[in-house]
Write a structure and sequence with these properties.
The chain is of the alpha/beta class and 248 residues long. It has six helices and twelve strands. The protein has an eight-stranded mixed β-sheet with strand order 3-5-4-6-7-8-12-11, sandwiched between helices.
């Protein structure tokens, strides 16, 4: 597909249960830095989950294997990946029976950052996001002002050396100096953005803690894997949260 001056590509899969008679949710699954749509489809677990749960999945391909989400992480600074994601959703909706109120974004590492970027800049399209192995950047570096509350569940490993769990200053792969909010800082930032009240639940057996009293009924969850590095997270846990939420 053409987006601006660029030709973009993606892989899309309909579950075996798809007949076109009723609408299905759509999940966009973004690959990691240097990855491919095909590799993400093999590794993330959303292909298999979509078969069991009955939803459509699309795996977009990033230019130079990266996603333009602000100062981190690509050298292709003029790429409009938010525009690509919006156009991809529209194209799949034109070709298949998609529930327009139940479109979600997931991804790992740089792909997780892309899911966050869409929550910040395309909340009119995406009802929820489930990023793994990435955090928000400082507001001065990557402004995040979603137009509506967005359901969010993230997966993080405490031993991640690329995106430190504690956050702080880092040098991105493209050489930019960036500041991660950290896993807990990102959790608290989303609670603030979604106008959550009260305190989060204690971590459950999966390491997941949740703010459940948020504007428009959305949830904000952080799932922490102790000792894990780049945590891919659980598609099953992510989907269990995402599928409870839709656009107004």
């Amino acid at each position: 597909m053409a987006v601006g001056d660029a030709t973009r590509s993606y892989v899309v899969r309909l579950p075996a249960s798809y007949t076109g008679a009723s609408s299905m949710p759509l999940v966009l699954d973004f690959h990691t830095l240097g990855g491919t749509s095909a590799a993400e489809a093999e590794a993330s677990g959303y292909r298999e989950l979509a078969e069991n749960e009955g939803f459509i999945v699309a795996w977009p391909q990033g230019i130079d294997g990266a996603w333009n989400i602000g100062p981190c992480c690509t050298t292709s600074r003029d790429v409009d990946d938010v525009g690509f994601a919006r156009a991809l959703v529209q194209q799949v909706q034109a070709e298949a029976c998609v529930d327009v109120k139940r479109v979600y974004a997931v991804g790992v590492a740089n792909g997780g950052g892309m899911a966050y970027h869409l929550a910040c800049n395309a909340a009119d399209v995406f009802a929820g996001v489930a990023p793994s192995a990435f955090d928000l950047l400082a507001e001065s570096e990557q402004p995040c002002q979603p137009v509506r509350p967005v359901a969010e569940i993230s997966f993080r490993g405490t031993a991640d050396v690329l995106v430190p769990y504690e956050g702080g200053a880092q040098q991105a792969p493209n050489g930019a100096n960036i500041t991660f909010l950290g896993a807990v800082g990102t959790f608290e930032r989303w609670a603030e953005l979604n106008q959550c009240t009260g305190t989060p639940s204690a971590a459950d057996s999966d390491g997941c803690s949740t703010y459940s009293s948020c504007a428009n009924g959305v949830e904000v969850t952080l799932c922490t894997a102790q000792g894990d590095g780049t945590a891919w997270g659980s598609p099953e846990i992510g989907w269990a949260t995402l599928k409870r939420h839709s656009l107004p």
